[in-house]
Specification:
Helix content: 40-55%
Strand content: 5-15%
Strand order of the largest sheet: 4-12-11-10-9-5-6
Number of helices: 17
Radius of gyration: 24 Å
Mean pLDDT: 89
Shape: globular
Distance between the termini: 46 Å
Structural class: alpha/beta
Low-confidence stretches: none
Length: 465
């Protein structure tokens, strides 16, 4: 085969439908090595002119390439050949891949004897007095109706009392996030988020056929001017935001910034999807962004992070006008939240157990953050007083992949920043170090390993082995 006939394609050589033939020509050029990761494709208008096609046809071809994961469309910059990525990369180290004994890669709350006692007590109580609807009802409305008041009570605790909104009970935050995305956007639509965002977002949007692009940030999170400029350049469906420390860089967004983002979303008529999985873990935080733009906000939280890892229950708040659409999408993806989890959550919320465990979590994380501050003193890390992780930006010669590998060799797992970087977003080398999943002693040892490594120059990995 004469590879020079593959790229660039000649006018009149594309088959019908032309958009698909153009997309296949790009794929063939990539496979033949004529296009490499990072190469920029011609603009839509230039490609249309060169091939005698309409701009709409070229746009459809590029959208198809984005859907296939071949091309990355960067807001305001153009379309670039993507570097092949590992499927469904995660920031944490699966047990089968990590041979060390200290895992600081997984974002988990602190687990104490009080949590085990609380679970034993509630299970014993359930054995004596268990609602039959929790095991016999097959309809979400029948099985979960009794738990709505407890959900609303917890949402008020999170700073979001319901006002002309509805709440769906879900099997945790990921299920809620999926329903929110499917409700506000369709394949090909653009979602904006922090340049370093939730590790699931880029994979989930790709599976749903949606586009995602990162926005510039500072110590508070998303810059309003970056959001406004992106909305002015391209049609945007939704803003995905984590304003209360949950984001990889541990940024806590102030009240004024939250209001500015809400106003920009309103001005451009885009939805807001707010991930508040930590819930009320951070005391004294500002009200959720969703409280400032209720008519367009999809807010979700859960008890998994702030109360107990195994308590897989979440709450998704949707505008009243989108209740039916969200409920339908929840039905086809999850059917309903597990009633047993909802029953335990409701009992704990109503009898004060949830609040007690929340206070214990705050105290434990405050102690661990103080430990991290002591050991990492002098290094430019970012954290929040009750947060579950610290973000450690890196300067040359360190890169996140190098530090992660050196830490692994020393028996410690941490999360590389590349896991959170959205395609097209700004790239800030760094690592996330989680504080809750290990014992205090293991956490101290792991932090000392990271501190020791960063206070010296990196050695070649083969020498470190």
């Amino acid at each position: 085969m004469d590879f020079m006939t593959i790229w660039p394609p000649k006018p009149g050589t594309l088959r019908r439908p032309a958009y698909r033939s153009l997309a296949e020509a790009v794929v063939a050029a990539v496979n033949a090595g004529l296009l490499s990761p990072g190469d920029r494709l011609p603009t839509h208008r230039q490609m249309a002119f060169d091939l005698g096609l309409s701009v709409q046809t070229v746009s459809r071809a590029y959208d198809e390439l984005i859907r296939r994961g071949v091309v990355n469309g960067e807001v305001g910059r153009g379309s670039f050949i993507r570097r092949p990525q590992a499927e469904a990369a995660t920031p944490f180290a699966p047990d089968r891949q990590f041979g060390g004994d200290i895992d600081l890669s997984l974002l988990k709350p602190v687990l104490e004897q009080a949590h085990l006692n609380a679970m034993r007590d509630v299970l014993a109580a359930l054995s004596e007095n268990f609602p039959t609807t929790a095991i016999s009802s097959f309809r979400p409305s029948s099985a979960l109706r009794a738990y709505q008041p407890a959900a609303e009570r917890w949402l008020k605790r999170c700073g979001l009392p319901l006002e002309r909104q509805s709440v769906l009970l879900t099997n945790g935050a990921t299920a809620a996030m999926t329903v929110a995305l499917m409700t506000v956007a369709q394949p090909g639509d653009l979602i904006l988020a922090e340049a370093l965002s939730h590790h699931t977002l880029k994979t989930l949007t790709r599976y749903l056929g949606m586009r995602v692009a990162g926005l510039a940030t500072d110590e508070q999170g998303i810059l309003p001017e970056s959001l406004a400029a992106a909305c002015a350049r391209d049609p945007v469906k939704a803003l995905y935001v984590m304003p209360s420390g949950l984001n990889p860089q541990a940024a806590m967004m102030g009240t004024r910034r939250r209001g500015e983002l809400a106003e920009i979303a309103r001005a451009h008529d885009i939805a807001i999807i707010e991930n508040d999985a930590w819930g009320p873990l951070q005391p004294g935080r500002p009200a959720p962004v969703s409280a400032l733009a209720r008519e367009r906000s999809f807010y979700f939280t859960s008890l998994t992070k702030c109360i107990l890892p195994g308590l897989r229950i979440g709450f998704l708040v949707v505008p009243e006008t989108r209740e039916s659409a969200a409920a339908s999408r929840h039905l086809v993806t999850n059917w309903m939240a597990t009633p047993l989890m909802a029953e335990i959550a409701a009992r704990w919320i109503n009898d004060g157990t949830a609040d007690d465990l929340l206070q214990r979590q705050r105290a434990a994380l405050a102690e661990r953050n103080a430990l991290a501050e002591r050991i990492l003193h002098g290094l430019p890390f970012r954290a929040s007083i009750n947060g579950m992780h610290v973000w450690l930006p890196l300067e040359p010669p360190w890169r996140d992949a190098v530090l992660v590998e050196h830490a692994r060799i020393n028996g410690v797992a941490i999360a590389p920043g590349t896991t959170f970087a959205l395609d097209g977003g700004e790239r800030r080398p760094g690592v996330r170090i989680c504080l809750g999943g290990e014992s205090r002693e293991n956490l101290e040892r792991g932090l000392e390993v990271i501190s020791r490594l960063l206070r010296s120059a990196p050695e070649p990995v083969l020498m470190a082995i």
